[in-house]
């Protein structure tokens, strides 16, 4: 499995940083698949029509969108590949990295990524624009790549002997993914030395939540790390909180660092687990109509909460952290979040390809539009290059005393736990 997460390192990519709307992938299915296979021009027009009716910006980036339609329908297309290239070219005119076309294989991969169950080796990769090479963001814990010894910042120079110089991330995904039990050889450049790693592909179920209960000076603390808002995220978060409550923790540290987002409904579900009342998020569509999602009095705990965020916390992570911050439910610690305040609807097209369309922007409960701005933490704690490299080199240190941001979170939480106990005692006394 490979998840493209370029946005965490090199900027903005739609794959990594989309908040996918409740409509989700595969809901809008066309009944004319065979027709589109014979008439690529109709596929081009289907995409144009969807943008025309749903795109959040009714000025279409100050374009004459009708003129764009005429331009592309006057062209001749010999096959679907020609149509795909035209669609991508047409969408680039919107200058919106989140509104994007996916060919059938890319669309299938996207659906797999959000499902949380994949087949491959278990690495997150990006493209380093300076070297034009593929770089490992991180191996996913308990996967073949992790067991083989692949590390963050490794450069992939070859895949099964194929040079990766200039290779697109999606092309690399196709080469690395494969049937369980089959092998792939990754040639890794680590600090100037090359080595081949033969890795056996496996079926990988991604668990987005990793939880533990830590014994500290203030008593037991629940540490919950959420890595993505996938289809399993809500259930696993609920289980983690319930288990921590059974162990009678005094408070929580919720780690959203380097969480690129995912499903919109998952962020709302999880916010409701921490918030008893109050607004969570407002989405504003092209007509200015606002839909507000709020807590529903079903919080699982009211104990003190500190949330860790950084520049890799994006999209659904910002919905959750913004809701907790605006409702004074949590203290945010770390660095400024990514700043991705747009919502996409993902739908299937007639020939099995897919389209992600920006349909709305979202606002935090206080009305903040965080797109391109991000959410500032309440307490800023920067990591030095040395500290960052240390955590990347040994990911078992994340969420321990060797993690400076986590240590600061515990320090803040200890004060909040004392205040919480004091207020609880006062209520009982009254």
Number of strands: 21
Q: What are the segments in which pLDDT stays under 50 over at least 5 consecutive residues? A: 1-37
Compute the gyration radius: what is it?
23 Å
Fourth CATH level, the homologous superfamily of the domain at 209-343 and 353-423: 2-enoyl-CoA Hydratase, Chain A, domain 1
CATH topology of the domain at 209-343 and 353-423: 2-enoyl-CoA Hydratase, Chain A, domain 1
Q: Structural class of the secondary structure composition? A: alpha/beta
Question: Into which percent range does the helicity of residues fall?
Answer: 25-40%
Strand content: 25-35%
The average pLDDT score comes to 86
Proper CATH architecture of the domain at 209-343 and 353-423: Alpha-Beta Complex
Q: How is the biggest beta sheet arranged?
A: 7 strands, mixed
Can you tell me the overall shape? globular
Distance between the termini: 57 Å
Count of discrete alpha- or pi-helical segments spanning 4 or more residues: 13
**CATH top level class name of the domain at 209-343 and 353-423:** Alpha Beta
Secondary structure elements and pairings:
Blueprint (H helix, E strand, L loop, with lengths): L1 E3 L9 H4 L1 E2 L12 H6 L1 H15 L10 H9 L6 H13 L7 E3 L1 H12 L1 E4 L2 E6 L4 E7 L4 H5 L6 E5 L2 E2 L5 H8 L6 E8 L2 E8 L1 E4 L3 E8 L2 E8 L6 H14 L4 E5 L8 H11 L4 E7 L4 E5 L10 E5 L6 H11 L4 E4 L7 E7 L5 E10 L15 E2 L4 H9 L10 H26 L1
Parallel strand pairs: 1-5, 2-19, 13-14, 14-17, 17-18, 18-21
Antiparallel strand pairs: 3-20, 4-11, 5-6, 6-7, 7-8, 7-9, 9-10, 12-13, 15-16, 15-20, 19-20
Helix pairs in contact: 3-4, 3-5, 9-10, 10-11
